[in-house]
From TrEMBL:
The keyword Disulfide bond applies. Keywords: Disulfide bond, Hormone, Secreted. GO terms for molecular function: hormone activity; prolactin receptor binding. It is found in: Secreted. GO terms for biological process: female pregnancy; mammary gland development; positive regulation of cell population proliferation; positive regulation of lactation; positive regulation of receptor signaling pathway via JAK-STAT; response to nutrient levels. This is PRP3. Pfam families: Hormone_1 (PF00103). The keyword Secreted applies. It comes from Cervus elaphus hippelaphus (European red deer). GO terms for cellular component: extracellular space. Belongs to the somatotropin/prolactin family.
């Protein structure tokens, strides 16, 4: 695999592992469609939190600035803002669902 930067072509050694490998999702579409909303929301939040660090590093680490174009850095920063916004929305939704579930259990 090749990684292209602004200045030169770098070769990296591909690996079969990823920081999101700990997340397990159904491989088949039919099974995925049967995931309830709460579990799906939790899964999405976990996925987002796993991407926080790498995306933050890409957007703000000075080591990347010399290798990435301004367009790529700007895109990474915009995507990081979108990630934080979506996390906030999902956390609010998830906390509302949890509150409603607890209220239902104690009624």
């Amino acid at each position: 695999h090749e990684k292209y930067s602004q200045n030169k072509t770098e070769y990296i050694i591909p690996t079969n592992d990823c920081h999101t490998d700990s997340l397990h999702a159904p491989e088949e579409r039919e099974k995925a469609q049967h995931i309830n909303n709460d579990d799906l929301t939790k899964w999405i939040l976990r996925l987002q939190y796993l991407w926080n660090g790498p995306l933050y590093d890409l957007a703000h680490d000075l080591r990347f600035e010399k290798d990435l174009s301004d367009t790529n850095l700007s895109s990474a920063r915009k995507n990081l803002k979108k990630l934080y916004k979506l996390q906030t929305i999902l956390k609010m939704r998830f906390s509302q669902v949890s509150i409603l579930q607890r209220a239902f259990l104690f009624c």
